[in-house]
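Thread title: Can someone regenerate the structure for this chain?

I was given the following input by a collaborator and told the matching structure tokens would be attached. They weren't. Posting the sequence so someone can regenerate them.
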Amino acid sequence: MKPYRLIRLCALGCLLGGGAVDAVAQYSFTPSPSAAARRIARSEAPFARPLGEVLDEAAARFGVRIDCRDFAPDTCLLRYADARVRPYSLDETLDNLLRPLDLKWERQGAKIRVRPYEYHRRTDDDGEKLLAWLASQYADSVAWERRAAEVREDARHILRLEPFLRGAVADPTVKLGAVERHDGYTTQNYALETLPGLYVCGTIYAPETRGRHPLIVSPAGHWPEGRYRPDQQYRMATFARMGAVAVDLDIVAWGESEQQLGIEAHHAPYAMQLQVLWSKLVTDWILRTRDDLDPQRMAATGGSGGATHTLLLALVDGRFAVLAPVVHLVSHFDGGCPCESGRPIAWAAGGSCTTELLAAVMAPKPVLTVSDGGDWTHTYPSLEYPYLRRIWSFYGKTDAVENAHFADERHDYGVNKRAAVYRFFAEQLGLDAAAVDESKVSIRPAEALCSFTQGWPAGAIRSAAELERILDKLQ
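Best answer:
Regenerated them for you:
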């Protein structure tokens, strides 16, 4: 094997040979005096050494602890390793050792954390610099409108949803379950055919009152149990008790969709486009088939990955008047899951971020962003929120963009976050805030929220391979 070939393969093993996300390899020992001689003797590349050994020595030299996450450092063979060490600088040593292998590091007190480069995750400082650069591009509503139009157009181009929309079934099969009555609201399961033989499933939560109601669409996030989890049911049912028709839907290859495609399809390159397609088609179908909706009062909300898809739905459907993305959209994190960032819309217009995209899609419409101190949204009150307020100020609508921050909470759509959204939607959509009482909500088992408990209809897709043959034709 040629030396350069060996190095390339070892670097690949470094990036792909990790284990579970939370696995940690820790290094604290010092090689014996004869270790260097043994390494030179067995090297198959010029002065090559396993990265793990070099990091051990760096840790001992500089008196720090080095933790490697998401990869196995001893699978990474680094050429000229000793020549990369700078005995006077830990920072330069780590840069020299790690950058050739596409690894990054960050200091956490006396500990150094090393992990593979993540295209979707940046530092808080990166976010601050990006927002400062973006803000320098526009100083008034006229300049902002030019930028916003460019961001929207480019993001839609990058998303490339048109082939999926062209392939959507013109006269889809719809399976509706029985209407179930609860305390102040009803539920009805649905399954909507989207592409031929491919269904998206969800539940319609509706008020018992008559008249024209707001519509709230809520894509699910990545939490265990998907849309069946209790906090999703509390939220959707309470929206209905307040006077809105609230509709949720599975995420691709989760819930009932997993039965059709298998969980691996969630990580396929097309997952993002398919998820946006589903949100759009569900919205179109529910507006087309119900006469109790007010299309002037449309809102969307979701948490974590559901927040991304709330934004993407608003991007492709300009009818949404109000958004409430929860614990997600910041300037330094793009999700990372293919269903959220498989298409790099955050690169729109020469380099953007989800915060700017949110402003481009919604300003000056009402938006509530919900954040907490226990995840990447800890920066929102001091970083992203002032940036958004400045853009809304161009229209004299600074108060239309709000932030509810829970410094002592973690990444969830918990009761306090739901209360903030209930209050906001009550104000913006004319809902009944007095009807907020989650003790009135019936939490149902997952099977009670499913449409195909008795089997799938004839012609239904039963594998990702079948779907991919359809997608190949669409392209």
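Residues 3-116 form one domain.
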